Amino acid sequence: MPRVALVTCRPRPGIAEDRDLPVLVRALTEAGARACAVEWDDPAVDWAGFDLAVIRSTWDYTWRAAEFTAWAERCGAATRLANPADVVRWNTDKRYLGDLAAAGVPVVPTRYFAPGEAPALPDGYEYVVKPASGAGARLAARYTPDEHDRAAEHLRRMHADGYTAMVQPYVTAVDRAGERALVFVGGRLLHASRKDAVLGRGTPYDAPRTAHPRPVPWTPGADEVAVAERALAAVPGAPELLYARVDLVDGEDGRPRVMELELVEPNLFLWLHPASLPAVTAAVIAAAAR
């Protein structure tokens, strides 16, 4: 009986419910595994007591990114961690988009401003400001060129809290075509979803968010699958990935671009795609048996 930890976090304000977690625990148990949900920062957990630890809904990590990556290193040394600790270290900092761009992957253009650096905000188009370590659109906001003072205050807040800031053009196509999330398990496309735009004009950066508004099943086109596969092939070190989610939007040219590559704690939307549950269950058990 493989022993599997599905790694989550403590409930707290601002953290969404993981609708997939109890379903996946039950499916793994019914398939013969000893599976349980475990909080990543619980000091009583003996990670060596598991054959596999699968990071799932550790959605508070952006408040404690350094602590979380240190935990991933310790956990990965004690047992098999999916995805691996070096992937966690790379993917929890959204400067990875620069690595993807350097590898020729089409991504949303992004500039980064670390604390102490004076940012040059755009003056000719709408843009987004958000932290380089973030999830669920936390501390993200959309600005027009005449909202310079509000955007500058947002940047000062992030820099004061130690965050590197990202500035991206607002991809207007997301308002009509949405954002598409392609989920891969064991290197193969499992399913895809489409969701509406997250950032409304004029919404403060510290307002509550719905991270995945109105998701629906989506059938990706060949061009979307090709971009997603290019992004996965560009991950440094070509690691073995148990799961991945590639979030795409359409650029000004109408072609898909990577908005985010989620390799640490992506929502897999199994509740929206229940037919995918057996494949995920089988992949987790196979990984635990290695």
Shape category: globular
> Reading side by side through the largest sheet, how are the strands ordered?
11-10-9-12-13
Largest sheet data: 5 strands, antiparallel
How confident overall, as mean pLDDT?
A: 94
Q: How many H/I helical runs?
A: 8
What value does the Rg take, in angstroms? 19 Å
Q: How far do the termini sit from each other?
A: 13 Å
Reading the helices and strands in chain order gives EHEEHEHHEEEHEHEEEHEEH
- Beta-strand residue fraction: 15-25%
Number of strands: 13
Which helices and strands occur, and which strands form pairs?
Blueprint: E1 3-8, H1 21-30, E2 34-39, E3 52-57, H2 65-78, E4 80-82, H3 85-91, H4 96-102, E5 111-113, E6 127-131, E7 141-143, H5 148-160, E8 165-169, H6 174-177, E9 179-185, E10 188-195, E11 216-217, H7 222-233, E12 243-250, E13 256-262, H8 277-289
Parallel strand pairs: 1-2, 1-3, 3-4
Antiparallel strand pairs: 5-8, 6-7, 6-8, 9-10, 9-12, 10-11, 12-13
